[in-house]
């Protein structure tokens, strides 16, 4: 998904302030934070929406919340 901003961050094509990275997820600070601590956690594999992630892999969706 070359046009996906998040996929570009995961691939390292767009710089981000990464606070966590593992085999399944990348977590980084939001560039326009709406709270003192605003971190986005995204799966390494592309999913169009959180609902698509939950439908395709409920276990991965749960792990993302834990992360």
Percent helix, as a range, is 25-40%
User: Could you tell me the radius of gyration in angstroms?
Assistant: 12 Å
Q: Order of SSEs, N→C?
A: HEEEHH
Overall structural class, as computed from helix and strand content, comes to alpha+beta
> Span between N and C termini?
23 Å
User: Mean pLDDT score, rounded?
Assistant: 94
**For the report, how would you describe the main beta sheet?**
3 strands, antiparallel
Number of strands: 3
Poorly predicted ranges:
none
Number of helices: 3
Strand order of the largest sheet: 1-2-3
Indicate the overall shape: globular
What share of residues are in beta strands?
A: 15-25%
Assembly type: single chain
Task: Please supply descriptive tags for the structure shown above.
33% helix; 3 strands; alpha+beta; 3-stranded antiparallel beta sheet; 67 residues
What does this protein structure show overall?
This protein has 67 residues and is α+β, with helices and mostly antiparallel strands. The chain has helices at residues 5-10, 50-56, 58-66, and strands spanning 18-21, 25-29, 39-43. Strands 1-2-3 form a three-stranded antiparallel beta sheet, with helices on one face. A hairpin with a 3-residue loop joins strand 1 (18-21) and strand 2. Helix 2 packs across helix 3 (58-66). The longest helix has 9 residues, at 58-66. The mean pLDDT is 94.
């Amino acid at each position: 998904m070359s046009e996906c901003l998040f996929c570009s961050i995961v691939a390292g094509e767009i710089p981000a302030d990464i606070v966590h990275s593992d085999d399944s997820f990348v977590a980084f600070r939001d560039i326009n934070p709406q709270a003192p601590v605003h971190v986005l956690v995204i799966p390494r594999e592309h999913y169009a929406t959180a609902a698509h992630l939950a439908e395709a892999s409920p276990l991965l969706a749960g792990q993302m919340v834990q992360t």
